[in-house]
Design the sequence.
């Protein structure tokens, strides 16, 4: 069980950090009232709700209750409860710039200067920074770099990527999928539609796979495509993308695209690094070619 308290300066990236942690599998709760934290921790640390990785966002919005957290943390330390604190910080100059760019008001400077709100916030959060297991300065970090830092700090033993890949077959006659990131056209491959005995079958069946993959074109295409994906997919991952849709199309989405999508799925699934699923959008539609 892993419980991480995510806290820090307003504008330093706490909300972004929680979204990133949610993407990699954490159950995230933000701005829970301090008086409920002990009950919440008791629930998640007991494993009663089945959660394995939980992130709890806490910041200066807790108001007058915030000092109560110090005693709670001291009690957890004495009980040797398995939790850690991540404190996100940034320079005053960067925080001021971020507030000016977003035109949002600082929670402690609703009607005053941002600088004074930041100074007061640092004073109120000082005990949390002292207690923190990790202090991360986000002044110069891009979102993708913040993701990398969080994964290294909080998930050092995780083998799997947080990128979820969908391999989707479709028919061009029904339109290109709106959510496709990469689209590949396999209408150059042999088409079983024109063989009456094969027409009613689908690319999931071995006789159709054998027909589509006859000759060298299908295997050569897959070889070159997998080399391309081997280059591209880590680049998407580095940019912080958590969903990638690889769409493979033929005329009707019943034969050729289904066969090739299935091959791509198997080859991506093989190494076990990525979470991959296979979907055939148009395979069961009538009149597919």
Sequence:
């Amino acid at each position: 069980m892993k419980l991480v308290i995510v806290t820090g300066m307003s504008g330093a990236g706490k909300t972004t950090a929680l979204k990133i942690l949610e993407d990699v599998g954490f159950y995230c709760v933000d701005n829970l009232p301090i008086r409920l934290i002990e009950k919440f921790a008791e629930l998640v640390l007991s494993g009663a709700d089945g959660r394995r990785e939980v992130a709890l966002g806490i910041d200066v919005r807790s108001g007058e209750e915030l000092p109560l957290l110090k005693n709670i943390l001291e009690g957890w330390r004495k009980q040797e409860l398995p939790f850690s604190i991540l404190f996100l910080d940034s320079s005053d100059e960067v925080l001021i710039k971020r507030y000016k760019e977003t035109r949002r008001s600082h929670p402690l400077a609703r009607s005053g200067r941002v600088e004074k709100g930041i100074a007061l916030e640092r004073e109120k959060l000082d005990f949390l920074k002292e207690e923190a297991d990790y202090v991360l300065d986000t002044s110069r970090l891009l979102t993708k770099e913040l993701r990398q830092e969080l994964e290294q700090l909080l998930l050092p033993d995780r083998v799997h990527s947080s990128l979820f890949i969908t391999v989707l077959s479709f028919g061009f006659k029904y339109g290109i999928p709106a959510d496709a990131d990469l689209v590949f056209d396999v209408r150059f491959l042999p088409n079983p539609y024109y063989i009456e005995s094969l027409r009613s079958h689908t690319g999931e069946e071995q006789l159709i796979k054998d027909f589509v993959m006859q000759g060298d074109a299908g295997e050569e295409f897959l070889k070159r495509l997998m080399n391309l994906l081997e280059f591209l997919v880590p680049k998407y991952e580095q940019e912080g993308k958590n969903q990638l849709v690889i769409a493979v199309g033929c005329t009707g989405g019943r034969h050729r695209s289904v066969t090739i999508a299935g091959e791509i799925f198997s080859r991506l699934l093989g190494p076990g690094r990525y979470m991959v699923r296979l979907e055939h959008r148009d395979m069961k539609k009538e009149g597919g070619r």
Summary: The CA atoms of residues 90 and 138 lie 5 Å apart. The mean pLDDT is 88. The chain is about 40% helix and 20% strand. The first strand starts at residue 2 and ends at 8.
